[in-house]
């Protein structure tokens, strides 16, 4: 087992990893930018190294500085958390070159799944259902129009290196194709330095369902059931739940089997998610694979009593997984609390927290790195906490979440707490009958 792990991340996920390391008797090293000097992950780690100024490129994305910090402190492994370098194949490869274990997927696995066109082709060969679309990248708008006619409108074009909805456009008619094609390519080039575009059939009224998988170094893969991530705004998740109210036991089993097929095809190592779109007919299609721990992993932990961070560390150290597939024993829901003003277009709201009261009680878990007096920097993602509740039924969980949110006090900044409280009372959400288009008709003006 590792003696010392450097956490190449910040905020709540860095603190989350530190907690598990301490429970495993493993020493920890925090890295931080000058903007995060007062963050809790810096205070609670055994050692901390400042690696640069606030901009991510000069700190949390600075591979030479991170490797140097690992070498100076004698860390024998690096946990990348999520975001930043967690799905960076070059970082995984460099860690290996320096004799430092990257706690995550190998460079080859990240490359296979990181390029969406390659990922789709790989899954198709593995027998995983994929959305009808182009065979790889499309060179010209003329080729794209021809393929769209075969697929049948509406279609969606996507940047192969994309994420967060950038480089993505829905096209419903041929006469709007050229403009949207050019817009998507330009956005992709600016955001990712890669204007490669592929096309898929646009799945209408979909649910976004992801299957949690874990694979070891010996070729074994198991799944820990699903998470429903359909409540989104601009392709950014707002809350997640498990089990999904849209899945039958039969569909759950089929999707779990498909996820294992896909992960096994690339001999996946570590924790990851295979993400699907499920249409209104119950047909599901592979969308992408995230080769890292997810923000929403705690809800899976709560319903399976399974520490995913610990499993990541054990797998990276060469410990075999049990190979057992898990099914939820409880219900769980997570609300992401962001430093944003939902009444004003979710505008970021960094600043100093003047007063803080965290909710508690049976079945309530808070993952956060903030405290009273802490100043939220404007340089990074706006998520400052996750409220995770579990219970015996979905109805119980919704009531418990509303109660917990009403107890949650954060003064000095705007947060998404009022939005989540209103969400808990929304009849469409309470019924479980919603799609990824849910937010298009949600009233934010009354918040």
TrEMBL record:
It catalyses: N(6)-biotinyl-L-lysyl-[protein] + hydrogencarbonate + ATP = N(6)-carboxybiotinyl-L-lysyl-[protein] + ADP + phosphate + H(+). The keyword Metal-binding applies. The gene is accC. InterPro entries: ACC_Biotin_Carboxylase, Acetyl_CoA_COase_biotin_COase, ATP-grasp, BC-like_N, Biotin_carboxylation_dom, Biotin_COase_C, CPAse_ATP-bd, PreATP-grasp_dom_sf. The keyword Transit peptide does not apply. Its EC number is 6.3.4.14. It comes from Flectobacillus longus. Keywords: ATP-binding, Biotin, Fatty acid biosynthesis, Fatty acid metabolism, Ligase, Lipid biosynthesis, Lipid metabolism, Magnesium, Metal-binding, Nucleotide-binding. This protein is a component of the acetyl coenzyme A carboxylase complex; first, biotin carboxylase catalyzes the carboxylation of the carrier protein and then the transcarboxylase transfers the carboxyl group to form malonyl-CoA. Residues 1-444 form the Biotin carboxylation domain. GO terms for molecular function: biotin carboxylase activity. It is an enzyme of class 6 (ligase). This is Biotin carboxylase. Gene3D superfamilies: ATP-grasp fold, B domain (3.30.470.20). Coiled coil: none annotated. Pathway: Lipid metabolism; malonyl-CoA biosynthesis; malonyl-CoA from acetyl-CoA: step 1/1. Acetyl-CoA carboxylase is a heterohexamer of biotin carboxyl carrier protein, biotin carboxylase and the two subunits of carboxyl transferase in a 2:2 complex. Residues 120-317 form the ATP-grasp domain. It holds the Pfam family Biotin_carb_N.
